[in-house]
């Protein structure tokens, strides 16, 4: 069965419903398992309880200070701002702290 997707249809269906339709997932009910949760119920509950990201985040003030110092270095050394685009400098930052590099770049 194919459906024509329109903005109004998308508004009517929740993201879970759209996912279920797109992947052919249907809910089933067995008379003997009234206390058991269905797989889709377990998935819905699990998605609400995702663990916090384990990646490291810097406070905005510290991130702003790192950017300020980086620009200060470029200006003080009379270097072009394209210095930060150097693959060698980017790799150096990535090697020193890949999580910091991802936030600053």
Q: Structural class, from helix and strand content? A: mainly alpha
Oligomerization status of the protein chains: single chain
Question: How large a portion of the residues is in β-strands, by DSSP E?
Answer: under 5%
**Gross morphology:** elongated
Number of domains: 2
> Which parts are unreliable, with pLDDT below 50 for 5 consecutive residues or more?
none
Overview of the molecule:
Helix content is 55%, strand content 0%. The protein has helices at residues 7-12, 15-22, 39-48, 60-76, 87-96, 98-104. It has 105 residues and is mostly helical. The protein is elongated. The chain folds into two domains: 7-48, no CATH class; 60-104, no CATH class. Residues 1-24 form the signal peptide. Keywords: Signal.
Key terms for this structure?
105 residues; mainly alpha; 2 domains; 6 helices; 55% helix; signal
Compact description:
55% of the residues lie in helices and 0% in strands. By secondary structure, the protein is mainly α. The mean pLDDT is 69.
């Amino acid at each position: 069965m194919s459906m024509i997707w329109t903005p109004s249809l998308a508004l009517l269906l929740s993201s879970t419903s759209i996912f279920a339709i797109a992947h052919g997932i249907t809910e089933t009910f067995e008379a003997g398992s009234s206390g058991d949760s269905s797989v889709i119920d377990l998935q819905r509950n699990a998605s609400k309880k995702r663990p916090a990201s384990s990646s490291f985040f810097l406070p905005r003030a510290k991130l702003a200070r790192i950017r300020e110092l980086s620009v200060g270095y470029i200006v003080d050394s009379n270097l072009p701002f394209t210095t930060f685009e150097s693959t060698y400098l980017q790799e150096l930052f990535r090697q020193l702290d890949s999580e910091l590099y991802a936030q600053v770049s």
